[in-house]
Amino acid sequence: MPAQTPTDQVTITARSGTVNFKIVATPTIVSVSNENAITGDSVYIYGTYLKNIETLSFAGADITSFASSDDGSSVGFVLPALTQSGPVSITTKFGTAATVYNVNDIATGALSNWEWSGVFNWQWWGGANLYSGDPNSGWPPYSPDFAGNSSLYMVLKTNVLSGGEGNTFSSYAILLNAAQWVPAGHLSDPVGNWAFKFETNIPGGWNGGTIDIQSSSGTYVARWEPWQISATGTAAYSTKGWTTVTIPFTMFKAKDATLGEGKGASIATFADLLGPSGNSACTMYIHNYNTASTPTGFYGAFDNLRVVQIK
Q: In the CATH scheme, what is the code of domain 1-105?
């Protein structure tokens, strides 16, 4: 497609006549690299047809300096100072895409953001430790390994896990008290319309061991395994600073008799996972489902565990 098009149609004229084909290139936004980035961070928006952008807005701030990838699958910019929360919106010649959820927002749908004046909600045991993004903090401690976060967050660290090692207590878990995952008025929504989100920072290579996410029931598990790059292949996974992870609720699955936990049927309703009220505790823990030891241990930070509408 040329950089500029005078119309939104392709016209073909042949000996027998002329026909017009409408160009359907409405932009879409699939994800944001870090929905809660800080001023000066590089932020990337991923999607389709993100070229020939006329306007770009991030949490109410107009972004005037940005660069699109050649194939239109992403656009990047340096985040300015923000004053509010709000959606991401991109307008091109062919239309506008906007997120249903807000960015620069750690309050909406929060299960825990570990802020003293926010939603702390930690059970004060498990295996994770509380850290501060303030280098002048005496306690909680500060770690340069997780720079780029000005608030409080959790760090989970394990050694290499032996076959089958890992559980919901001791040195393996982040444990939260009960909270409202999905608003009561939305419990009948399609489960695919909502997602579990968090920010994470994994500075070193992580390979093996599954981050399991589950509710109080423990029947359904969402497995996060970014090092699993194919059915049989793995590769060490790390992040470039803090990044947002999105777990659609369709990833919360029952146990399969052959494949194991989180490999069976997806939840059909939110009540399957959360009970009739939508209020439940939350556990994130690491588990090695293989019989062999993991190639590496896990060392990473988590922040802003939340449930938000994505459709």
A: 2.60.40.10
